[in-house]
Amino acid sequence: MILVFLGPPGAGKGTQAKLLSQRMGFLHLSTGDLLREAVKNQTPLGKKAKEYMDRGELVPDELIVQLIEETMPKDGNVILDGFPRTVNQALALEEMLKDKGEKISKVLFFDVPDEVIIDRLSGRRVCSKCGAVYHVKYNPPKVEGVCDLCGGTLVQRDDDKEEVVKKRLEVYRKQTQPLIEFYQEKGIIYKLDAGKGVEELFEEVKGLVRDG
Ligand code: AP5
Ligand code: ZN
């Protein structure tokens, strides 16, 4: 089963994808996480991607499509989190899956109002060591500033600074939002009210996954 998680920055896609992967065994493929790892390790991809990410812009389609081609497993249950993000990426994914005789099962659209996005992104903290995601209000660590899982220091993501968030939202509206209609026409998109709490939202996600 191949699921696509689509939605604005900070909608909670990564949080739900992690739960689905921990509790139902899905492989969580996040282009954002893969890119941040590449930046951290200063790989050739990371060096090219960094400037776009720092500005809140999308990394060029060809780099992303190549990244997905390299990491997409041959089979099994997969969540694509943050990919595709442009119509060109969606078309490339279609081709890639067609070659393997597969297709997207469902696109889950995480719908949230702008105030919620700002609130979630401004309070997000991530572990500098293991990448675990926290929120100062909604999912605080046991000890302030310290990761529960590995003891690493919690930091704010560079692109969660206010000016970059504004740009990411603008880029989302221009380049990613058209995918909603693209997938509506295919009849495979399901809208979720992602303003709900984490567990309540997970129940909805689980329901959609169980229905096949
Ligand atoms: P990426 O990492 O994908 O960023 P994004 O889409 O902006 O998504 P986020 O990670 O910000 O949010 P999320 O929806 O996962 O929310 P989360 O669960 O963390 O991409 C970063 C950059 O990489 C892009 O700008 C681009 O440059 C590049 N990139 C990536 N993919 C690309 C692609 N395909 N093409 C081109 N470029 C690409 O939750 C947010 C916060 O809210 C957390 O603190 C969390 O604890 C909290 N929270 C979550 N759910 C809830 C809830 N239900 N209630 C209360 N709090 C909650
Ligand atoms: Zn950690």
Automatic annotation (TrEMBL):
Region (NMP): 30-59
Subcellular location: Cytoplasm
Keyword hit for Transferase: yes
Gene3D superfamilies per record: P-loop containing nucleotide triphosphate hydrolases
Molecular function (Gene Ontology), one example: AMP kinase activity
CDD domains in UniProt: ADK (cd01428)
Region (LID), start-end ranges: 123-160
Positions contributing to Zn(2+) binding: C127, C130, C147, C150
Known catalytic reactions: AMP + ATP = 2 ADP
Family matches, as SUPFAM superfamilies: P-loop containing nucleoside triphosphate hydrolases
Any single Pfam family the record assigns to this protein: ADK_lid
Binding site for ATP: G10, A11, G12, K13, G14, T15, R124, V133, Y134, K196
InterPro entries for this protein: Adenyl_kin_sub, Adenylat/UMP-CMP_kin, Adenylat_kinase_CS, Adenylate_kinase_lid-dom, P-loop_NTPase
Main location: cytoplasm
Annotated PROSITE patterns: ADENYLATE_KINASE (PS00113)
Keyword Cell membrane: no
Entry's Gene Ontology BP terms: AMP salvage
Cellular component GO terms, alphabetical: cytoplasm
Domain comment (free text): Consists of three domains, a large central CORE domain and two small peripheral domains, NMPbind and LID, which undergo movements during catalysis. The LID domain closes over the site of phosphoryl transfer upon ATP binding. Assembling and dissambling the active center during each catalytic cycle provides an effective means to prevent ATP hydrolysis. Some bacteria have evolved a zinc-coordinating structure that stabilizes the LID domain.
HAMAP family: Adenylate_kinase_Adk
Oligomeric and partner information: Monomer.
UniProt name for this protein: Adenylate kinase
Source organism per UniProt: Thermocrinis ruber
Protein encoded by which gene: adk
